[in-house]
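Write out the 3D structure for:
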Amino acid sequence: DSADGFYATAWSADSKNIAAGGVDTVVSLWDSETGTRRISVEGHRESIEDILFSLDGKQMFSSSDDNTVRV
């Protein structure tokens, strides 16, 4: 879990997944029904500032203070 909290969260369109990220530079994907973490994705060098899902829920986008967007 992020030690300093989450800066960004997003729900998938089907409400089955929640994504969250923060100062630890990791985006985590959670099952909204069970609260189980499904996956954690690293790649940003600075804090996660925003997270979005594609409309079909098949892709997740994150942006960071390192001026990058990751898919």
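The beta strands are 6-11, 17-22, 27-31, 37-41, 48-53, 60-64, 69-70.
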